[in-house]
Every structure is written in structure tokens, then in C-alpha cells.
Amino acid sequence: MYLFTIPIHSNFNAYGNKYLKYGFGFGGPCLPRDNKALAKYGSEIGLNALISIASDNSNSQHLKHQIDYFIQNNSKEKPVYISGVSYKINTEIIEESQQFKFALALANVGFKVIIEESEKVINQIDSLYPNLFEFKKISQY
């Protein structure tokens, strides 16, 4: 996978440039759920939660672009090795994980996907998608 970074200088130390690098979109159990809930609630009371809707759409489109780009530019003859598919490092949560959705999409179109993760995450994935992936266990985070 290619890594693209945007050179930027920021005086705002709370974020700096660490959030302006190429990578996966947002995920996890909270922000995607809350974002969708805010958009739905806004719709119910006659308001458009435009930022929630736009960020959700952008997040979905970004992942689709990553998947399509990878499929178009890589051969199924080589295995795909993904280290870490939980939504954020040092967690066991795969709910709304962009990394896991990426791995799942590739496996579903015939790529051999090897996931390196903790035993708990491996057990979760294997119970949901038996025999779809190969695994390499990380001894600890």
C-alpha cells in the first residue's frame, strides 16, 4: 500500500499535521453511529444535518476509492497482508472499522487476505467469517 502525506505547517498544536495524512477514514462504534443518528434526528425535525451527511458520504466514498484502486492495481496472485484491522490500535473493536471493511472487500472478490491481529480479534472475525481469512497472531499490543 502506498503512503501519501501532505506537507503542511500548522500552528494549531492540538492537531498539527497528523490528521492530514493518507489513510483510512473514521470508524468505530461511536462517531459513525452518532453521525447517522444526528442526520436522522435532524431530518425528523425538519433540519438538514449537512455536515453529518457529507462526512458520512465522504467516508464511504473514500473507502470505496481505496478498495477500487487496490483491486485495479494489484494482482490476486499475491497475498494481501494487513496488520491491524480493529478500528483503532490497541482495541478489540471491529465495528465500523475501515481497515476491516477493506480486508473484507478484498477477500470477497478473491484476494488471499492475511490479517495480523490479537487473538481476541482473530476469534471475532473467524466466528463471523469462517475460513475467509488467514491469520497471524500478535502476542500483545
The structure class reads mainly alpha
Mean pLDDT: 86
Number of domains: 1
* Rg, nearest Å: 17 Å
Low-confidence stretches: 1-12
- Percent helix: 40-55%
Concise account of the structure shown:
The protein is mostly helical and 141 residues long. The chain is built from 4 helices and 3 strands, in the order ααβαβαβ.
Mind explaining what this structure looks like?
The protein is mainly alpha-helical and 141 residues long. A three-stranded parallel beta sheet has the order 1-2-3. The protein is built from four helices and three strands. Helix 1 crosses helix 2. It has a single domain (31-137), classed as NAD(P)-binding Rossmann-like Domain (Rossmann fold), CATH 3.40.50.720. The protein is globular and about 50 Å long. Helix 4 links the parallel strand 2 (113-117) and strand 3 (134-137). The model is unreliable at 1-12 (pLDDT under 50).
Provide the descriptors you would attach to this structure in a database record.
mainly alpha; Rossmann fold; 42% helix; disordered N terminus
